[in-house]
Every structure is written in C-alpha cells, then in structure tokens.
C-alpha cells in the first residue's frame, strides 16, 4: 500500500501550538488533543468524540430526575493522546474525567488491557542464529497445547479477588528460578519459568499488583471449571486485534540513567506483552450495562449515543458495586494473563539458550477507571498512566517517573519512556502508535506489500503458512493474510511521530528504543 498523503487537519480542530490542539464543542467541555502536525487525526474519530460529549446532556437529565445528589454529575475534561483514533462508540486514546458519575463504556470490554515489559539476561546475538527453532517452539507453546497452565480453584479465585498476590499466595509450582532448558522442555508448563523476582519486591514494578475485592462470584464457573488443578483455553491467550507477545531487543538508549535503573542495556532481549481480560472483561462490561439499565429513570429517554452513565448516588450503590466488583475481577485476571504470557515467552527463550533470568520492568494498564475521594472518576480508554518522578522512596519509578510503554505497529520499533506527570495531559500518555486506517480498509491492502513484510519479519500465528499442507489450502491462507493485513504497518501511524509528540508536549521523555525480533499474534 503506498504511503499515505499528508492530510489537512480537520477544520473543527484548533491548533494551539506544535504539541496541542483543542476541539470546541456544543457542550463547552474542555477537550485537548496531544498531537504534533505530523500525526494524522481521523475525522471519523472527531465525529465519534463529539457524539461522546453528548453525554453531558445525559448527565444533566439524570441529575434533574434524581433529586438530592451531593454533586452535579458532569464531564470535567477530556484529553486525547497522539494515538487517538476511532473506536466502537468511544475513541481509542480518550482520557475522560467526570464528577458524580462513572461511565462503563469509557473503559469498554477489554478491562485492564495493558502492557508488560521484562528485561532478560539474554542478548539478541544469542538467539539470532536459532530463530527457526524459536518460532516452532513458540507456536507450540502458544497455540499447540504447550502452555500447560494448571490452576487450582483457590488460585483462580485468589487471582480474581486480589490480582497477582492472590495468584502467588500459595506455594507456586515453580522451577528452580533459573529457567533451565531441561525443566522447560516439551513436558514442562509455563509455571516452571517462575523465578524469585516474580514472588518478591513487586512494589514499583507494576502500576498495581491487583485490585482487591471481596468476591468473585460472578465468575464462579471459571473458578471451579474442571475441579482440582485444571487447564483451560482462556488463561495464557494472547487475544485478537492488536494484542501480541513479542521478543525485542534494546537498539538505542536515550536516557542512560533511567535505562540503567530499569535494568536495560544495548543488545539485551526484552519481552513485551499486550493483552487484557478477554471474555471476562466482556462479561464485566455487560454487567455494567445491565446495572446502568436497571437504575435508569423512566423519565429519562435512552440517549442517542447509547452511552449509559452510572450516578455515584446512594440509591444506585448496590448495582454499581456489582459492576465494580466484576470490573476488578476482570482487571485482576488481565494482570495474571500478562504474567503467564511472559512466562511462555521465557519458556521459548529457555529452549534456545538454557538458563536465563527475566525481571519485570513494568506492567501498565490502558483500560481502567480511577475513582477519587472527591467524587471524580478518571477513565482511560486506550491510554496509559504517565505519572512523574517525585515519590518519597528511592525506587526507579520515584526517581525517574512512571514507565510509559509505547509499542509501534507490527514490525516497527517500540519505545519505553518515563512519565513527566503532565497535568494538562491528565498524567496520561498513549498506549501505541494508533490506527490510521480502519481494519476493513487495511484488510484490502496490497499483497505485494504483505509479502515484502513477511520476508523481513517473523510473525508466529496458529497457522504456519510455510507448511506445504497449509499452503495448499488457498481459502485458509487468504483468510490468514486478510487478518494480518489488518495489523500490518501501513494500518498504523508512524510511531516516531507519536513519541515525538509526547516528548514535545512534556508528557513523557524517551528512555530506550526496542527493535522487534518476532511477534506472536493470536
């Protein structure tokens, strides 16, 4: 697909400077968009955002129908990150702060979708000669029954109620902690890759290790599935769309002090996982919609944009708590899922290099909400926290700021940055490059471009397109190629321009650049 021609900015946007635009709107809500002149912004995303802002009228109607509220429910501010693009009702890259209400759709189905990054003891030169074998091993681990993640009902419930501390509370069926090749062989499960760094000193290496709640009853079927120690097809799944598990290496260092503090050095192999809560998130979001409908006043028409806020009033508290409990369960599951995906990448590496160490750099969420004691709620949809330095401790996150993980499109470099705590950005940054072409249009991209891409880059999928038996099935191969085109480089914005927007806007400063070695896609 030829390079896209530069487009004139949408006339509804007002550029303030080289880093920021604003969007005047009938609701009078302050809307700031962080994007440099070289970052494209879809007009359809602006259309969608203006539709979202109609929720201000919905909140006024709800307030009128609900006397006695402590605070007037409203949307206070909206910030859009450089990867801003059309979503399914609410644009990706939208940060929305409300008072007196929360909006389930402003987080969506994939609750706590996020990124996990680990720094390993392996160098890129150690694995470059063995990529064919590594690809076969990862295909087995991810798609051919090799993950073998056995969980007891107690571990499942612990994960959903407490996050990683609940999952790891009991004696873990861990290996030696060294990831030796014999223990990570074909018969070994992902649990064998658990090392001492996974069980202790998590503080400062995750935005949160868990979101504790008292119940996980909404997911009782998953907790008790199989009885005893059981295996399922959910935990350890990459998911679809732009989710991935990737091996990368440090190709450039921009901030030596922060890189050293985070345990990163040139040539080092890094694991990056992008996944979320899968079917559990869909179930939790459905719970939110159901509870919002149940509490909806008869006198208030269903809004045209189909966005149903939940007021933070006493009358709706029981239903709201049911949603927030399911929400936390799904968020905790996502933490565990990324943990196991990283263990599976470790197992693939161990089959090549033998003994290795891998230590988490950070786990950052994208799709979450943060209720505050003052009655405000910060919602992030496809956006990541970017708090600045200044904590009271001596942890790297206190000294350098919160790690911001910005992957590029498939095959493109990814970037780790340190957050600067920019209040204009609602201390938020983007979670990737962001789409520039809708999936349907991208799927119609040119075959020559896809072939050229596949000659240069390895994508591990359930289907091995090099297998002669598979290649003979043209219908299967064509469907596989259509799926890949939807996530191909031409479907996304150029990540360098996106990262530069964050830097110029004083949202985050680059620390290292990461080049991909291979990507696992579901």
UniProtKB/TrEMBL annotation:
Q: What is its EC number?
A: 6.5.1.-
As its record notes, the protein acts as a catalyst of: a 3'-end 3'-phospho-ribonucleotide-RNA + a 5'-end dephospho-ribonucleoside-RNA + GTP = a ribonucleotidyl-ribonucleotide-RNA + GMP + diphosphate
Required cofactors, per record?
A: Mn(2+)
Cofactor-binding details, from the entry: Binds 2 manganese ions per subunit.
List the InterPro entries hit by this protein, alphabetically. RtcB, RtcB-like_sf
Indicate the enzyme's highest-level EC class.
Answer: ligase
Enumerate the UniProt keywords alphabetically: GTP-binding, Ligase, Manganese, Metal-binding, Nucleotide-binding, RNA repair
Under the subunit heading, UniProt states: Monomer.
The family this protein is said to belong to? Belongs to the RtcB family.
* Protein name in UniProt: tRNA-splicing ligase RtcB
Task: Write down the species.
Answer: Plantactinospora alkalitolerans
């Amino acid at each position: 697909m030829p390079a896209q021609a530069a487009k004139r900015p949408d006339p509804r946007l007002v550029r303030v400077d080289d880093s920021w635009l604003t969007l005047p709107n009938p609701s009078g809500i302050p809307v700031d968009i962080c994007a440099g002149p070289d970052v494209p912004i879809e007009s359809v995303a602006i259309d969608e955002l203006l539709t979202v802002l109609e929720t201000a009228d919905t909140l006024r109607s709800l307030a009128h129908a609900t006397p006695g509220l402590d605070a007037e429910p409203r949307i206070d501010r909206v910030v859009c990150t450089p990867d801003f693009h059309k979503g399914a009702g609410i644009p990706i890259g939208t940060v929305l702060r409300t008072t007196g209400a929360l909006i389930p759709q402003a987080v969506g189905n994939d609750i706590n979708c996020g990124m996990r990054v680990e720094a390993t003891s392996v160098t890129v030169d150690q694995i470059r000669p063995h990529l064919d074998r590594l690809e076969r091993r990862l295909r087995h681990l991810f798609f051919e029954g090799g993950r073998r993640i056995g969980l007891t009902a107690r571990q499942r419930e612990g994960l959903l109620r407490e996050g990683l501390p609940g999952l790891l509370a009991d004696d873990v069926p861990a290996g030696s902690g060294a990831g030796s090749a014999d223990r990570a062989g074909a018969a070994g499960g992902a649990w064998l890759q658990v090392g001492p760094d996974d069980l202790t000193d998590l503080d400062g290496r995750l935005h949160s290790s868990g979101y504790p709640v008292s119940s996980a009853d909404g997911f009782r079927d998953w907790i008790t599935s199989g009885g005893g120690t059981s295996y399922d097809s959910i935990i350890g799944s990459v998911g679809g769309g732009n989710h991935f598990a990737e091996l990368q290496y440090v190709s450039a260092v921009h901030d030596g002090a922060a890189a050293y503090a985070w345990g990163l050095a040139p040539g080092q192999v890094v694991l990056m996982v992008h996944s979320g809560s899968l079917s559990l998130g869909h179930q939790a979001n459905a719970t939110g919609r159901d509870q919002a409908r149940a509490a909806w006043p008869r006198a208030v028409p269903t809004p045209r944009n189909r966005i149903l806020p939940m007021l933070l009033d006493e009358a709706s508290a029981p239903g709201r708590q049911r949603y927030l409990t399911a929400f936390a369960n799904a968020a905790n599951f996502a933490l565990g899922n990324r943990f196991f995906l990283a263990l599976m990448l470790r197992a693939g590496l161990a089959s090549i290099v033998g003994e290795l160490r891998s230590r988490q750099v950070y786990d950052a969420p994208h799709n979450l909400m943060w209720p505050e004691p003052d009655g405000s709620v910060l919602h992030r949809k496809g956006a990541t926290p970017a708090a600045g330095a200044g904590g009271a401790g001596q942890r790297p996150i206190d000294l350098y700021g919160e790690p911001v993980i910005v992957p590029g499109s498939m095959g493109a470099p990814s970037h780790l940055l340190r957050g600067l705590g920019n209040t204009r950005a609602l201390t938020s940054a983007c979670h990737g490059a962001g789409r520039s072409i809708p999936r349907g249009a991208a799927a119609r991209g040119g075959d020559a471009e896809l072939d050229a891409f596949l000659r240069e880059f390895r994508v591990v999928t359930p289907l091995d397109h090099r297998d002669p038996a598979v290649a003979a099935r043209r219908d299967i191969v064509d469907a596989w190629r259509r799926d890949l085109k939807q996530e191909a480089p031409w479907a996304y914005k150029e990540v360098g321009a996106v990262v530069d927007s964050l830097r110029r806007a004083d949202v985050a400063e680059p620390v290292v650049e990461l080049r991909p070695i291979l990507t696992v896609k579901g």
